[in-house]
Amino acid sequence: MDGSDVILLDVWVSVFGARVRVALAEKGVKYEYREVNLGDKSPLLLQMNPVHKKIPVLIHNGRSICESNVIVQYIDDAWHANSPPLLPSDPHLRAQARFWADFIDKKMYDGGIKIWKTRGEDGEEAAKKEFMDVLKVLEGQLGEKPYLVGESFGFADIALIPFSFWFYTLNKVANMNIEKDCPKLADWVKRCMDRESVSKSLPHPHEFYERAMERSKQKGQ
Q1: Residue 105 CA from chain centroid, whole number
Q2: N or C: which end of the chain has fewer CB within 10 A?
């Protein structure tokens, strides 16, 4: 398929956009990447996502698909003939993959942002503990498996792996050591990063840190 049939409206340092980039790479889908300025939203973004007005937005043959996990499932369906499948064929495993992707959506972003924004030692320690508790739950789900659900890299892993480029920043700003405290998760991150679809789709952790610090200075935080 010609890349002009598929357009991704995105921001490079978005964890949610990264999910879509990984999924497209896994399926070998060519696409046109368009970086969006969220401070000055384009008419195309407002037209294609009039409800939330957010990225990522996948435009396929002129029609838009919004919300990262929904987009990843769409990619799996629309390019089902392309290997590998992103969702398991077994109904129970499919349900498990969706459950964990939903858990990640509800816990990871807010938990990380809470650490970043919290001021005061007591509040910061509580935010760090809350976030680490989430990581420990995910590490428990991982157990001795190579990936979160089943034996193959898939939907739940794609939902989580972009958050790994936050870890360096959280370690720096909150005096954490996520890799030491969650060794199984750290090994999982390395396993995922060995995949070209992941390593080429995620910003470098140091790049994210520099952008985060620059944005913080601009806001006077």
Answers
A1: 9
A2: C
If DSSP codes are grouped into helix, strand and coil, which group holds residue 126?
Answer: helix
Cβ atoms within 10 Å of 3's Cβ, excluding its own = 11
Q: CB–CB of 155/76 below 8 Å?
A: yes
Mean pLDDT over 39-45 rounds to: 96
Do 7 and 182 meet the contact criterion of CB atoms below 8 Å apart?
no
- What is the rounded CA–CA span in Å between residue 212 and residue 209? 5
pLDDT tens digits, residue range 162-215? Answer: 999 999 999 999 999 999 999 999 999 999 999 999 999 999 999 999 998 988
pTM confidence score? 0.94
Question: What are the phi and psi torsion angles at 138 (to 5°)?
Answer: -65, -35
The pLDDT assigned to 124 comes to 86
DSSP alpha helix (H) spans, the chain: 15-27, 43-48, 68-78, 91-117, 121-142, 155-160, 167-174, 178-181, 183-193, 196-199, 205-219
- The tokens describing 74, both together, are 């769409």
Could you tell me the end-to-end alpha-carbon distance of the chain, in angstroms, rounded to an integer? 46
Domains, the chain, in order of start with CATH, read 3-78 (3.40.30.10), 91-219 (1.20.1050.10)
DSSP letter assigned to residue 147: S
Cα 164 to Cα 78, 86, 89, distances in angstroms: 27, 19, 27
Between CA 60 and CA 81 the distance in angstroms is 17
